[in-house]
Fold this sequence. Notes:
The protein is α+β, with helices and mostly antiparallel strands. Among the domains are: 2-36; 115-269, Beta Barrel (Thrombin, subunit H), CATH 2.40.10.340. Helices cover 37% and strands 25% of the residues. It has helices at residues 2-15, 17-35, 39-103, 269-276; strands at residues 114-122, 129-132, 145-148, 151-159, 164-168, 176-180, 186-190, 198-202, 215-218, 230-239, 244-250, 259-262. It has a 6-stranded antiparallel barrel. A 6-stranded antiparallel barrel has the order 6-7-8-11-10-9. A hairpin with a 5-residue loop joins strand 6 and strand 7. The longest helix is centred in the first third of the chain and has 65 residues, at 39-103. The termini are far apart.
Amino acid sequence: MEVDKLRKYFSFFIKHNTFLLFLLYCGISALFIRLQGQDTLNTLRSGCIEISSFLSDKATGVSEFFRMSEENGRLMKINATLVSRVISLESAVTESRNREKVLADTTIDASRYIMAKVVGRKFSDRENMLLIDAGRNRGIRPNMTVLSPEGLVGRVTYVSAHYSKVMPLIHHEFKVIVTSGVTNTMGILSWSGGREDIAQLEHIPISSPVKLNEQISTSDFSTFSVSGIPVGRIISLRPDKLFYTVEVKLGVDFSRLTHVLVTPLKIEPEKIQLLQSTGETAVEEIK
C-alpha cells in the first residue's frame, strides 16, 4: 500500500511538475516582493556580501600561502646550492693550504716523491691503518716509505689501481731500525699501543751512551726505508737489567695528518735475503 501511494504521488508530480514549479516560483517571487522594502532583505544582502568578502579573503590567503610555500622552496634550493659551493671552496682552500705546507718544507725535496692525500683511516688501539688516494696508476708499490715534513708515517702494504693502504708507525706490527743523532745509537722502533704520540725504542743496552732529547731518525740498516727520515726524540730512559726502556715522542701528529709523501721503492733484495737466511754455516754466493 505504501509503495502504491508513493507511486501515485510520484506519478502526480511527474504529470503536473510544470504547474507545481510555476507555483513554487510564484511563491518565491511574492516573498521577495514582500521583503523588498523591509530591513530583512538588506540584512540578507549585507550577510551575503560579508560572506562573499570572507570567502574571497580566505581564497586570497590560501593562494598567498601556496605562493609563499613555492617561494620558500625556491629560496631553500638557492641556499643549499650556495652552501654547497661555500663548502667546496673551503675544502679546496684547506687542501691547497695543506699541500702548500708540505711543499714549503725546505728539508724535503717534494719533487722526488709522490704526494697523496689521506682519504681514510681505521682507528684502533693496536691496528691503525691509513688509506691514501694514490695507487698503481701513480707508481705506488708495496713497501714504499711514507712520510710527512714532520717525520716518518709508515710504509705501503697494499696497492690497488687508485688507492693504497699504509701501515703507520702506530701499528703493533710495524718496526723500523733507527739511529740517534748525537750518539749514533741504533735500535728498533716499535709501538705497543696506547698513546698515538709515544713509541718505544728496543734493544738499547745500558752501556749505550744514548741521551735524553736525542733526535731519532731512520737508519740505512732498514730494509724498506731510506735513511735520515726524522722519527721523534727520546723523552724517557729507564735502565733495566740489560737494556734501557726507552720512550720516543713521535714527530708526526697522526690525528691531524692530511697529506703524505711516498718515497721511491728501496730495492735491496740481497740484504733482505741475507737477513732472512737461517743457515749460519752454509756459504752461498748471491748473484
